[in-house]
Amino acid sequence: MSNTQASTTELMSAGVEKRAFRDGFKACAPTIPGIFAWGMVAGMAMVKSDLSILQSLGMTFLVFAGSAQLASLPLMAANVPLSVVFLTALVVNLRFVIFAAAIAPHFAHLPWYKRLWHGYFNADVTMGLFPQRFPAETVPHKEGKVGYFTGIGYPNWCAWQSGSVAGILLASQIPQSWGIGFAGTLALLAITIPLTINMAALAGVVVAGAVAVAAAGLPYKLGLLVAVIVGMMAAMAVDTVLDRKKGEDE
């Protein structure tokens, strides 16, 4: 391939990634206000758990895992052993192992340091939106995936971090009566509802929700992990039954 052809190919590839980035940003835009408010709740919780402002800023930029942060902070405030705090955060974040296993094959062609970089931005929002654009059957194709993923992940990270910093700096100025803690739930609902597109997805949502409520009393937030696993199994079972029935009808 000549230098001119190589340059043309690179320009075309860059154009595809830029358009994919814009598409990713448009897809995640409705969740940004909720993510910002959720980050603000986490920032306020960090300061009110007796962390200093510098410690709180360090935690939000290094950890970037809202549910794990909110689960760990009460334990840190209660001076429980560090091993318990670590185990709790690990269990709450185990769902990211599932997320990574689902998305990683799409980026297998990238060098390890780029996969590590993109893995830092993997979140509930990216897992909710990326497979809609790039389902499993698109794994062999490379075009537009990095652009679309970063178009979701970068704005999500900015919304979370700006909200966290605002919460850290304004912790003493925002009354709890505003009830902004519910914003995180609203943000996740904005992702979940559009994804419930068939009976298999609906079964997964219903079963996972019921199990999460029933298992809420399990220690270390294990109920969340159990709900994710059982919900996925229910969705896969319904999907298998529907495919079998469709095959018989044909």
How would you summarize this macromolecular structure in one to three sentences?
The protein has 250 residues and is mainly alpha-helical. Helices cover 75% and strands 0% of the residues.
Write a structural description.
This is Branched-chain amino acid ABC transporter permease. The chain has a domain at 14-85 and 94-178. It contains twelve helices and no strands. The protein has helices at residues 3-28, 32-48, 53-63, 66-77, 82-92, 95-103, 112-120, 124-133, 145-169, 183-195, 199-214, 222-249. The longest helix has 28 residues, at 222-249. It is globular.
Which tags fit this structure?
250 residues; mainly alpha
Helix/strand layout:
Elements: H1 3-28, H2 32-48, H3 53-63, H4 66-77, H5 82-92, H6 95-103, H7 112-120, H8 124-133, H9 145-169, H10 183-195, H11 199-214, H12 222-249
Helix pairs in contact: 1-9, 2-4, 2-9, 2-10, 3-9, 4-5, 6-8, 8-9, 8-10, 11-12
The main pleated sheet reads as: none
Q: List how many beta strands DSSP finds.
A: 0
Q: What number is the mean pLDDT?
A: 81
Order of helical and strand elements: HHHHHHHHHHHH
Unreliably modeled segments:
none
Shape: globular
Task: Bin the strand percentage.
Answer: under 5%
Cα-atom Rg, whole angstroms? 20 Å
Roughly how many Å apart are the termini? 48 Å
* Secondary-structure class: mainly alpha
Share of helix among residues?
Answer: over 70%
Number of helices: 12
